[in-house]
Design brief:
globular; 9 helices; 8-stranded parallel beta barrel; TIM Barrel; alpha/beta; two-stranded antiparallel sheet
Length: about 300
């Protein structure tokens, strides 16, 4: 059983830390976490915020879509707590790159998870601006996204950059079957999947999952790591299909997201953690990287 590499989700050294902040990146680095993930959301001017959501509402002291925020409203942008008090500044990708460029510390890889929303239109010019911003630290960067068209365009413009693909827009296992992004339908095996192949009269979920996995290879072909929801990995395994083995035989690594280790984890969750490690997932994305490090050291 191989130990998975730990990725600090949202640059959070622990669950009580705010996500996607510059201080979180520095804290994770100083705590010895070499692989750090942050979310990035585009602006129409070609800059990017370290931010997860489509709108600033609820999480910050501003309102409106991230993509087309009024430039006069960009200053003094802060995350806020439940009492609407300012906590940490919302930073830009350019600010993060400057920090990595001058003091990378223990950071081996910075994963930039490229978010996509209905209110944004990611043009080739915006992607070009993005590539210019990250160029000074490109060897340390990996770009990941559910938006395969963005991943493919980035690869077209720069074949050297490291990429990761998340297939959740195509197939997933989650409680919600509809909402703001696909898939909107569930098939009779319980998987979220809008593709017509998922609605065929499959006898076994294993055969359906294998067929879908093969069909997804072309979509995610430019990425050497796939990022898959951990509950989907486990559900598929219980249904007879092993995503880890399937991808490994094709030279692709797999990262399971996002699974935390907390004191209140029940026995079933502990079994899931053990199963993921036994399956041989290559990476674990987590909000509790210190707890994962302790688990691995004691295993």
């Amino acid at each position: 059983m191989r130990n998975p590499l730990i990725v600090a989700h949202g640059a959070r050294p622990h669950r009580n830390y705010p996500p996607n902040t510059l201080k979180g990146v520095l804290e994770c680095s100083s705590s010895g976490f070499s692989h750090i993930e942050v979310d990035i959301t585009a602006q129409e001017n070609g800059e990017f915020f370290l931010f997860h959501n489509e709108k600033f509402d609820l999480l910050t002291n501003k309102k409106g879509n991230v993509f087309n925020i009024d430039k006069s409203n960009m200053g003094n942008l802060w995350y806020t707590n439940n009492n609407r008090e300012k906590t940490d500044p919302v930073s830009s990708l350019s600010e993060l790159v400057k920090i990595i460029e001058t003091d990378a510390g223990n950071i081996s890889e910075l994963q930039l998870d490229f978010k996509i929303y209905p209110s944004s239109l990611i043009t080739e010019e915006i992607i070009g601006s993005f590539l210019k911003i990250i160029d000074p630290v490109k060897p340390k960067i990996r770009i990941t996204s559910c938006a395969d068209w963005i991943i493919l365009k980035i690869h077209e413009l720069d074949t050297d950059i490291k990429l990761g693909f998340d297939p959740q827009f195509y197939i997933d296992f989650r409680d919600r079957a509809s909402g703001d992004y696909p898939p909107f339908k569930k098939n009779h095996f319980g998987y979220s999947d809008d593709h017509p192949i998922s609605m065929q009269n499959w006898d076994k979920p294993k055969d359906y999952l294998e067929s879908r996995a093969v069909s997804l290879l072309n979509i995610g072909s430019v990425a050497d790591i796939w990022y898959i929801r951990y509950s989907f990995i486990i559900k598929s395994y219980q249904d007879g299909f092993d995503w880890v083995r399937f991808l490994h035989t094709r030279g692709i690594k797999i990262c399971a997201w996002t699974i935390d280790i907390t004191e209140d984890k029940n026995m079933e969750s502990r079994k899931e953690i053990k199963l993921l490690m036994q399956m041989g997932v290559d990476r674990i994305t987590t909000n509790t990287p210190a707890a994962w490090r302790k688990l691995i050291e004691n295993s």
